[in-house]
Specification:
Length: about 625
């Protein structure tokens, strides 16, 4: 069943063509990723499909019975609304019932709470309520009474994501859903979408996320659309094959053009039918030959400032904000060419550590000792402001007219911009006309142009396209200096860092020897071990004796007894997981868990099965 059909769609902004005559369909249950360079129309295309932006030519047809939700890259809300009102912005009837229940609880009106509770029971909304609490808890949306104008940009994005997921549409349209999520949230969202039956169309730069969630990729390149039926790994292979083919065609056309150009110059004025046909062919060949060839091996290798023996020593620093301790006696001595990643939940102190190291904020106690030869290059999460009328080339030249590469070769600012995918035309474009991703790319370039030898990167992958990330990764792998970075991009982290500072909460920072994938494996094994130990503690102490005397039970009873052991253990694990998930959200009322049908069912089953287990275990003692 087809949900959405896009036919011969074209869109331009002034003289800039984003895409032309592109066509594709979205079928039920497909999970599609949209890939393109920054500034080539990814977000615009999603907004056009969502009905927010207009288009020049073509058509978009969506089935009338298909519901959809759109997550904007920069969502906008009525600032006067509360978080609760923002969460339940959908018109779905069951969400209205749950919203009324939540508002009743907040009001404290017993009659209203009673009526709302009856409505929840009648419409069997408790399971839905639990699911909503799980989503809000995972995205750390806790204070439902808070006004939206009090939220940060990242909190608004998570609120908008929660709203999209809660509405349970047939078609989810997501623009960079992993931005402003920490790594735990991304892993949860990844699993949520894998399990979900919704159809998905999204833009993301997170390649692990893309690889594991999507099975279909659409690429916009040079205003044209290319489709790949597979995940990100398949896309990389087939894209390279396509580019190699296109480059071969261009090279052949350029060779033919030289011959045809000579013929055109000496062609007689009297034109025969045959010569006219050859002339038309000449112009077709000329168009192909003048096409831009793809450079598959963009390499950025700059000469860095020499690092001395002493790099950076962090000595027992402490820091707290509003009585919340973020760092306690943190210490570390950096060695030459170390590459360290920082991971942890939002608000746990990751950016605070970077700001302390770079001297932007002082520690409450402790010292930072920086080597004399260290030149920091600090890429901040919030970026910098450019003058809207300033041209890209002028910004680059203000930093350096010439950049020295590691080979000693000098390249002009314009040549250096080419490495960051700024074409000659774009270099003379005012900053005000750049997309958000292009601005981030320009900001990153201004940091690297200063030839730092100690790079500090705070979420460098936000809003950068995959092609730019490949260039940055290649640069960092060959960077002759130290790298310390915060990133939620697991693919990026795994390729660059060698060990991690893991902010585990309660001012605990673990120095983990390995990349993020290895840490995730370690964390999952520890969690599994914890659950097994918890389950083992809950087993009655008589278990061993019962097994030894199991011959006193009939075959049927023995089988039932063995099954009960497993079922009770599984129920305990499920109960623990559910309670943990519910407690991580903002519970509106203390007895919400008791009123959840599933949790009551688990408790009842656990009790009845335990009673039966005890009955069987005591049978042989009689």
């Amino acid at each position: 069943m087809i949900y959405l059909q896009v036919d011969n769609l074209s869109k331009s902004f002034g003289e800039k063509l984003l895409f032309e005559d592109i066509s594709f369909g979205v079928h039920k249950d497909q999970k599609i990723a949209l890939i393109a360079k920054n500034g080539t129309g990814k977000s615009t295309l999603l907004k056009i499909i969502a009905g927010i932006e207009t288009y020049d030519t073509g058509s978009i047809i969506m089935r009338n019975d298909v519901s959809f939700a759109f997550l904007d890259q920069n969502p906008e809300y009525d600032e006067s609304l509360s978080v609760l009102e923002g969460v339940f912005a959908s018109s779905k009837s069951i969400l209205k019932i749950i919203k009324e229940y939540e508002e009743a609880v907040v009001s404290g009106d017993r009659k209203r709470i009673s009526d709302a509770t009856d409505a929840m029971e009648t419409n069997k909304a408790w399971d839905y309520e639990v699911k909503i609490k799980q989503i809000l808890g995972q995205l750390e949306i806790k204070d439902l009474k808070q006004k939206i104008y009090e939220l940060s940009g990242g909190q608004k994005k998570r609120l908008a994501l929660a709203n999209a997921l809660i509405s349970e549409p047939d078609l989810l349209i997501l623009d960079e859903p992993t931005n402003h999520l920490d790594l735990d949230m991304i892993v949860w969202l990844e699993k949520f979408l894998q399990r979900s039956h919704c159809t998905l169309l999204m833009v993301t730069h997170d390649r692990y996320f893309l690889d594991r969630v999507c099975d279909d990729i659409i690429e916009i390149d040079g205003g044209k659309l290319h489709r790949y039926k597979g995940n990100y790994s398949y896309f990389l292979e087939k894209r390279d094959e396509r580019i190699q083919r296109e480059n071969t065609v261009i090279e052949k056309a350029q060779n033919i053009l030289r011959t045809e150009l000579e013929w055109m110059r000496r062609m007689p004025k009297a034109r025969t039918t045959k010569s006219k046909s050859r002339i038309e062919s000449f112009y077709e060949i000329k168009d192909i030959a003048s096409s831009k060839k793809h450079d598959l091996r963009v390499r950025l290798d700059m000469k860095g400032t020499r690092l001395g023996k002493k790099i950076l020593e962090v000595n027992y620093i402490n820091k707290k904000f509003n009585n919340k301790v973020l760092l306690e006696n943190f210490q570390f001595i950096f060695k030459r060419n170390e590459r360290i990643g920082i991971v942890g939940k939002n608000g746990c102190g990751k950016t605070t550590l970077l700001n302390i190291i770079t001297g932007l904020i002082p520690p409450d106690s402790g010292t930072i000792d920086v080597g004399e030869t260290v030149v920091f290059g600090y890429y901040k999460q919030d970026g910098i402001s450019f003058k809207e009328d300033q041209r890209v080339i002028d910004i680059a030249k203000e930093i350096a007219e010439v950049v020295i590469m590691s080979s000693g070769k000098k390249v002009s600012a314009s040549e250096f911009l080419l490495h960051f995918l700024f074409t000659p035309e774009m270099q003379y474009t005012p900053v005000g006309k750049l997309s958000g991703g292009e601005r981030r790319r320009l900001y990153l370039m201004t940091i690297l142009m200063q030839n730092p030898n100690f790079l500090i990167l705070d979420e460098p992958t936000n809003d950068l396209d995959i092609l730019t990330l490949n260039v940055l990764e290649d640069y960092l792998k060959h960077f002759n200096g130290c790298v310390l970075m915060v990133s939620h991009d697991r693919f990026f982290m795994d390729k660059i860092v060698e060990h991690l500072f893991v902010f585990e909460g309660n001012n605990v920072v673990r120095d983990f020897p390995g990349n993020y994938s290895r840490y995730l494996e370690y964390k999952e094994l520890n969690e599994l071990k914890r659950k097994r130990e918890a389950a083992a503690v809950n087993k009655p102490a008589k278990e061993k004796a019962v097994r030894e005397k199991s011959n006193k039970l009939s075959y049927k009873e023995q089988k039932e007894f063995d099954d009960l052991e497993l079922e009770i253990q599984q129920l305990e694990i499920e109960k623990t997981d559910m309670e943990t998930e519910l407690s991580s959200g903002s519970l509106a009322v203390k007895d919400l868990i008791e009123k959840s049908n599933r949790l009551k069912e688990i408790l009842a089953l656990s009790e009845s099965k335990t009673d039966r287990w005890l009955e069987l275990s005591e049978k042989f003692e009689e």
